[in-house]
Amino acid sequence: MFTTLLKGGRFVTCLSIAAVATLAAPGLSQASGNEVNFSLTDTPGRWFDTGATIAGTRSLAVTAPGVRVNFSGNSNTVHTRTSLIYPTGAAGMPFNTSPKKGGDTITLTTPGLYVFTCSIHPYMFGAVIVDDPKTTGLDLGNSISLINGITVPSSSDLATRLLRTFFIATNPGNWQNYASSVPWHVTYPNVDVRVDIGVVNLPAVLDARYGNDVTLELLRNPIVPAVGEIWVATQFETTSGKSKPGTITAVSGANWQVTRKVALPSINMNNPHNMWTDRNQNIIYATQWFDSKLAVFDRQTGMFIRNVSVGEAPAHVMTRTDTDQLHVTNNGDTRTDSVMELAPLATGVERRIDIGRGNAHAHWMSHDGKKMVTPNVFTGDTTQYNFSSNSIESILPASSPFGHPLATGMMPDASKYYVANLLDSTMTVINMNTHTVIKSINLIANYNPVTGAISGPVGALPIQTPVSPNGKSMVTANTLTGTITVVDTRPGLTTTDTVVAMLACDPGCHGVQYGAKQGGGYYAYVSSKFSNRMLVVDPDPNGDGNPSDASIVGKVGLFASGGTQSDATISGNRGMGGQGILPIPVVYNGWVQNLPASWKSQLTAAQQNPAQ
């Protein structure tokens, strides 16, 4: 019989113990030979691939204690094998390897839920449920621990929210498809699981907490057009002529239509992640995050120009405002000189830059071309580098040791910068002149991880976090909660560096960049990994400089239509995998002043000099 409990302000639907199935739970089969084999791949949703499908995912295995879990490489770049989630106190945990393409093995003896990830590509998931055959229901453990030290009961909102994220991420059929009128349905295995409060039916609990069969919102264009165009790395879209996924999608700011898809089948472009452009806005540089290359193509025609070897898992690329040289972070490189400097137009690599740490991700460059800041993922800290002296100015702590600093944003005058710490769900604020940590913004201060109660703006697992060109706001994409948080960055106020607004986002909320709005002001464009639409945020709708009234003013599809030009035929995951965003023209302070007259003429005086 079903019973309903009221726990922490929300309903949890359970099954009575007498009604629970035994070990042979319907919908899940046991791993054979008490061995699980994960192949790490470049394929969307199947990043940890067992080769067998369970309720739409190929990344889940169920087995008995003493299982041998083998990880092998079938990817173009390196990955770690990291125990993101594990039963609290489990033998051999936490487990974490250095980046590699080869194999690893671990034996799991403690019953419970284990979720493995790659610390370079932290949405890659593989899960193993180690089940005690003497208990009813599949064992998830009484409590789970995250690799950064957070521990919560297995029935908690944080635990089930993470579990739901696993099933969404690893099954493309569970992604939000705005090209379809069918309600959004998330498929879960129909099994009973043992948690700290007893035995519960997994889909019943997840559906009760987060809903299902949701009618998706209609797309709608912003009323006010944007200047130029918006390019989005639709990293999971598949096409003809390629074995690897990924396109780059152009959206017109004039009418919000998808005008072009660039797949670059001639080079088998692999998981394009983030982009930038030259000072004339003619060329687009795209990092291939599951590879070792930087792709270069013509913005107006989509024609391939060159493919440059830069290093393992290149993540982000930006130019210097003074020289137009490129800087690429090699996210998979453990060497301390892991940032590559390339000649203008990416004609070749000129040198490696030593930032004192490896594995940097989303860096940021200063308006004058003199400074660079990096989040150093594996070491929980951040580097500030000076190009004038070619030296490290500081390396400061940003998070806990496994807090996963992932992205940075900088004030337009380079007075301070921000570091988004993925697993800690915090933002570290750093003074660039004194090289000191000013404060830490706790994005989950208003969230109860056990009950799920939310008392104010919340952003769990923050990713991209740029500061507006005029230095008045910072928009952050938060992937776990599917929220957008807005921080007031105006100096000298009681609200300075506090979260003043929260907006709804899609599953896997990921990429953010600012672009110019026609007639003045800015839009912040937000992409999500597990949906195929882009959100358009106006950070200051009434123009008073205060971002507390930030709002979503547009919801734009990223899938091709009849008028979309493309160099390949779309074959799957239409418009999915939104990650890096590049608005053209680039209107951040330092870059905007270098724009050709044809672009400058489309901007207001305030947009041409945003720091004044």
From TrEMBL:
Signal sequence extent: 1-31
Residues forming coiled coils: none
Entries under InterPro entries matching the protein: Cupredoxin, Host-pathogen_enzymatic-act, N2O_reductase_N, WD40/YVTN_repeat-like_dom_sf
Taxonomic superkingdom: Bacteria
Keyword tags: Signal
Annotated protein name in UniProt: Copper oxidase
UniProt source species: Nitrosospira lacus
